Amino acid sequence: MSSPMASASSSASAMDPLAGLPKLPPLDNTFGALLLGSFVGLIQYGWTANQCYTYFRTYPSDRWILKGLVIAILVLETLHSVLCMHICYYYLTTNYFNPAALQTGVWSINLLGVVTGAVILASQSFFLRRVYLIGRQFRPLVAVAAALLFGEFGFATAVTIDTFVRPTLHNSNQAWMNSAGVGMAVLADTILTAALIFSLHRSRTGIRRTDSIIDLLIMYAINTGLVTGIMNLLSLVFALAMPNNLIYAGIVIVATKLYANSMMAVLNSRRSLQEQGTGYVHTTSYDMSAIHRQRAAASRSERWTVPKDRPTSPKVIDIKVTQETMRSDPMASMEGFEESKMSAGEAV
């Protein structure tokens, strides 16, 4: 004769056919975070693709090394997006009811680290060269930032190798290597942004139009470095505080897309900056007539305040024309300004 509890459990099993299967672990802080990061990353990938299209139409005469860098960024970003989509499909669709598969790494999630490191290194190489061209005093900082970026890429490669050797996800080796790599990226961003802002601030000339352009360049530098730095810092905090989930990985996906977007935004903004930087001071007939009108008005006012006799000493008009140009070098178009001053004297 069966007991009442046994009969109740058998009836519950009959009502719920999934009761006897293994319970699925929570996915909110693991593959749910990866899914959200992939959603945002795919939106950013669309921006990057549009910026690359705009670049090739706007700057067809750029050097091949710069065009090659843009092509490399687009290829790496495409591969990065494909890996993110495969990760989400594999774990959340193909193995949606296979808890054992959630603990092991598939080839796409194994390759995600090294591709992420490659995108960051390729994007930051543009900013490295920009700071390198500013002056010799910044080249030691460029060397330090380059070492940090290569170190970040090395840790990303080590994580990829470790996931292929030991396919279990969320192990301690991957946690500390991810934290070290993200920390190096944060330091490199800080060094490059600070060097660029400092050099631009020292380039201020006191001329209002020039200083306004320099302020705009400083704003670009802050925006491009600050956003990626904040995202990397958040990723570092989550990697240290929660190494056994994938929240930091979702943030890294968004940060990786920001690197490519920042580089392409800087490249595509050159023409607008050049248009703002041309023709700061023009000496035209209207300007000269305005000078004559001011002198005539001053002479009329002098008739009421000074004696009528005119001075016999000759007057000298010192005309100064200030011309400011921006360098057209594509890789160094935002690095500074060159000023040339010409003076001419005319005796009256």
Description:
There is one protein chain. This protein has 348 residues and is mainly α. The protein has helices at residues 4-15, 31-58, 64-94, 107-132, 139-165, 172-202, 208-241, 247-268, 270-276, 285-302; strands at residues 316-326, 337-347. The chain has a two-stranded antiparallel ribbon. It is elongated, with a radius of gyration of 31 Å. Mean pLDDT is 76; it is low at 279-311, 313-319 and 321-348.
Quick overview:
By secondary structure, this protein is mainly α.
| Shape field | elongated
Q: Helix proportion of residues, in percent?
A: 55-70%
Largest sheet: 2 strands, antiparallel
Strand order of the largest sheet: 1-2
- Amino-to-carboxy terminus distance: 128 Å
Which band does the percent of strand residues land in? 5-15%
Number of beta-strand segments: 2
Order of helices and strands: HHHHHHHHHHEE
Task: Looking at this protein, list some descriptive labels.
348 residues, mainly alpha, two-stranded antiparallel ribbon, 10 helices, 2 strands, elongated
